[in-house]
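Private note to self, pasted from the team thread so I don't lose it. Backbone tokens:
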């Protein structure tokens, strides 16, 4: 049985559905899948056949919308599966994101250590480096986030903040803050700057909202792949409290992240004060978890 088949079996087991009942449900909600029947599902579950990527995406999104990821066993299955993305992502990052990700040589035998930034003993050093890197990657004068402000944001329980150490040095970071959906839309459409965020704009851990990729950097594709893999696992673990994923960037090379990874550009323009071109990207969580490249690799 392949992984997709395992998920179908698990969903039926949780909801006490026969193959015929699930086939009927899928045909009703997804009219382009009206040719699905119990025989088709049986073949998928045994792994003798498998649907195409687009059909898999639609079925996985259907299962997601039905609350499938609320099940602990399913979360564990998916997180383990997303771990297998690392090698693929490393190869992908070697070809893309060259100005966002360094290309320092790294030993394949060297263990890459990812830490929770909140409890890191060298937290202050990492915070200062993150701020300096952020300022160096944007238009002069635009970046107005201080290390103290970043530390406060990272202290919120809903924030996902990890760093990677390599031989005791800062090798990468990945920080996601969870904000209210209306605030995320304003940022995506350039109606509001991220640097104006207040405490009330943030979500509590069990409050639904949008995850905003605040900052990401890695000194090599290998480290980038480990950070992004942890990001996917975080999204799976907290899926019931996440509506959307937001990326706001002033860098054209970040647009590579939109190709086949589920994130959609909702606005672009030119900032009149600082003269940079901006892009706002906002998509539902299920579009990210079940993007075509992801489904192709792990489902």
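Design output:
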């Amino acid at each position: 049985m392949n992984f997709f088949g395992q998920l179908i079996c698990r969903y039926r087991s949780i909801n006490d559905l026969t193959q015929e009942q699930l086939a009927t449900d899928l045909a009703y909600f997804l009219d382009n899948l009206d040719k699905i029947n119990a025989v088709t599902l049986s073949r998928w579950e045994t792994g003798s056949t498998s649907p195409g990527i687009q059909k898999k995406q639609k079925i996985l999104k259907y299962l997601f919308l039905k609350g499938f990821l609320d099940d602990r066993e399913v979360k564990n299955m998916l997180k383990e599966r997303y771990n297998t993305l690392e090698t693929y992502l490393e190869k992908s990052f070697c070809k893309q994101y060259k100005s966002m990700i360094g290309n320092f040589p790294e030993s394949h035998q060297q263990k890459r250590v990812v830490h929770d930034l909140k409890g890191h003993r060298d937290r202050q050093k990492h915070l200062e480096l993150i701020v300096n890197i952020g300022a160096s990657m944007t238009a002069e004068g635009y970046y107005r986030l201080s290390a103290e402000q970043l530390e406060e944001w990272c202290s919120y329980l809903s924030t996902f903040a990890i760093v990677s150490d390599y031989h005791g040095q800062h090798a990468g970071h990945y920080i996601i803050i969870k904000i209210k959906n209306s605030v995320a839309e304003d940022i995506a459409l350039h109606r509001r700057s991220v640097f104006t965020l207040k405490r009330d704009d943030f979500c509590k851990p069990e409050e639904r909202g949008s995850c905003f990729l605040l900052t990401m950097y890695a000194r090599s594709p290998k480290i980038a792949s480990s950070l992004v893999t942890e990001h996917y696992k975080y999204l799976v673990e907290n899926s019931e409290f996440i509506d959307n994923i937001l990326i706001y960037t002033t860098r054209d090379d970040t647009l590579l992240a939109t190709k086949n990874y589920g994130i959609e550009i909702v606005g672009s323009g030119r900032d009149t004060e600082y003269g940079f071109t901006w892009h706002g990207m906002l998509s539902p969580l299920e579009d990210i978890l079940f993007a075509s490249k992801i489904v192709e690799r792990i489902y």
